[in-house]
């Protein structure tokens, strides 16, 4: 099977216009989505270069008529054009009028038929007359609520000349960014849960003051009554986007290979981190003992004044990660400033004797603005952040729609560049602490993360492991259940290193023997070739990814490229 030639068209001129108006062009984030899956594609900013491709994805909707004319010409000549909530200027050509919905839920989406998937914006096409060009519709949109008024279809396919136009009504890329990072900077308290389970209005700016889920419709309840955000919506939209792109390639008689999320033998990853806070040596010692008993390595986020030197020696001896716990809490003698971030980080390096600290998590998830924290991390050499997680009992779970590591995107003032910081959000703090959620949330979290093969990140403070035996046992339970479900336990640094190394791999071509040519190969990584039903063979060489059977190729030895 031949390799599908896929390109993403990003209208740089239109983007500059938006940035000049201080508007975001978040469509550029599709680059991160595709890079993370390892799909080979070309990034095109000149409309004259699109003719040589099989599939063209629109990252930013063009407004100039001559650009839209070129897109129509591309389709007429046999290309497949894919858009997410765009192509407004083509609507009348197909005999449709548009309507905007914010927010809503999509149902009956292939692969996730039983899940109403939240979106933040959709623009539906409603027919003025019956269209002979329309050949397929899929999914139903609900306005505002999972059982709200039907507001259109999620996906439409049109025939135009020798090609096809595939249009998603949902702004998928905008939804991914919005769930992961919010839709505006954090400058005020978020709205609290009406049931009193999450008092975000606490006069303290933090990560969860900027989230885009619904307290009533997006939370589920465990058998013991614990409420949690159930679905990683951003990850579901990534799965849907990639699955559709691969199937569109197969429909053209070609394939679109990808790189598996994890190395051979690893299906999904669990992570346990700790925040030192009270800095009691006894709490560190009992935490080290329980981790040794569980046979796992964890990430220790250290806050000033820290532990005694002997504790750091034990942490290093047991191969745990020493990380930073930036304190911007004024009640704990902290402050939100770059200089203070730098000063505290210097303290940690001097105290531990380490020249490089890889990971950070902010004390009490303190967070302000949009990207200040990520800029500080970049400037002072922190490669990974873990601040984005719940600060309250009632907003645990997939608060930010994802359990995968990702590069955050900047605001319009920095032209929506990606920050060079790997964000690894967490699900909950201190399972079975007397004032937090009990152990009934462990299995649901692990099951949902397993569904999308992400990272199940649990935060346990050493002081609570020490003071409450229930939390001590919860660490053991998370470890036991995680291993039973096939999780490998990694540190934040391990996840960061793998994420970055894997992103350097590039699939270039398919060899005559059906294998893939890959540049910058990583030992024990897995590359996948999606197959048609006619090509299915030995199941021992196949895995199912994004709802499609793929032939697996394991990189066994390093090659010089």
CATH superfamily of the largest domain: Glycoside hydrolase/deacetylase
Our count of domains comes out at 3
Largest sheet: number of strands, sense, barrel closure: 9 strands, mixed
CATH class of the largest domain: Alpha Beta
Q: What is the CA–CA distance across the termini?
A: 24 Å
Q: What's the number of helices?
A: 13
Ranges where pLDDT stays below 50 over 5 or more residues in a row are: none
Global Rg:
24 Å
- Share of residues in strands: 15-25%
Name of the CATH architecture of the largest domain: Alpha-Beta Barrel
How many beta-strand runs? 30
Mean pLDDT reading: 96
CATH fold name of the largest domain: TIM Barrel
* Basic shape: globular
Q: Main sheet: which strands, in order across?
A: 3-2-4-5-12-11-10-7-8
SS-based class: alpha/beta
| Fraction of residues in helix | 25-40%
Provide tags for this entry:
561 residues, alpha/beta, Rossmann fold, TIM Barrel, 3 domains, nine-stranded mixed beta sheet, six-stranded parallel beta sheet, 13 helices, 30 strands, globular
Condensed summary:
This protein is of the alpha/beta class. The chain contains 13 helices and 30 strands. α4 packs antiparallel against α5 and α6 packs parallel to α12.
Model description:
- The protein has 561 residues and is α/β, with parallel strands linked by helices.
- The strands form 8 sheets. It has a 9-stranded mixed sheet, sandwiched between helices. Strands 17, 18, 19, 23, 24 and 25 form a 6-stranded parallel sheet that branches.
- α4 packs antiparallel against α5 (233-251) and α6 (281-294) runs parallel beside α12.
- The model has no long low-confidence stretch (mean pLDDT 96).
